Amino acid sequence: MPTDASSPLASARLKIVQAGEPVLRAEARELSIAEIRTPKIQSLIEMMRATMRDAPGVGLAAPQVGESLRIAVVEDREEYFQGAEPAWIAERERLPVPCYVLINPRLTVTDAEPVEFFEGCLSVAGFTALVPRARAVRVEFRNEQADRVVVEARGWHARILQHEIDHLHGRLYLDRMETRSFATTANHARHWRDLPTRDARAALGLRTKIWRAPRPEKS
Ligand code: ZN
Ligand 1 center to residue 10 CA distance, Å? Predict the structure, then answer.
């Protein structure tokens, strides 16, 4: 997922593939403990971290750099949203998330209340759409040392995790978005960014009160 920061795109360390590339639609494979510790995977993780920061993005999954492996990196820095209105940040329940690596993640929804905001994807560059996501999730995974980790996340952090773990199962936000809300990032900035979701939905001719429940998240 991109950051929402308006910094110009720098050249990425690894090439980020775009929608239409078959790897983005493939089920990525799990890694063994031994494989996680190999120099090859350790180096891939480092490159993914650098590529995410360079983009800049708040998450990046291995299929996005052409590797069909269950690895994702996430990081949401305060600088990415510090210029935003406090109400905008609070509505999204957006807090800084330190950089971490998820390998072979399993996601469980812990609060299925659907929350809907515009989100984008580094593999669908230049576009954004309203996407309903569960409000809170629990994710169990291995870190880069192959240790077991459990993370409980809500708000924007939970959204990032749902988005990145979708990538590991060949899913893009396009599969879940409100299709009528699909917009270029320039038009989003011009017409939609500062509107509460309810008002955006009304202007788009979508039902204003009842949000579509997200599909069950099982990973
Ligand atoms: Zn993405």
Answer: 18
Contact present, 30 and 70 (Cβ < 8 Å): yes
The CATH number of whichever domain residue 63 belongs to comes to: 3.90.45.10
pLDDT tens per residue, range 21-64: 999 999 999 999 999 999 999 999 999 999 999 999 999 999 99
User: pTM for this one?
Assistant: 0.91
In a domain, 148, yes or no: yes
Report the percent of the chain where pLDDT is more than 70. 90
Residue with tokens 């979508």: 206
197 vs 200: CA distance, rounded Å: 5
CA of 163 to the centre of ligand 1 (A): 6
Which structural domain, as residue segments, surrounds residue 24? 8-118+131-172
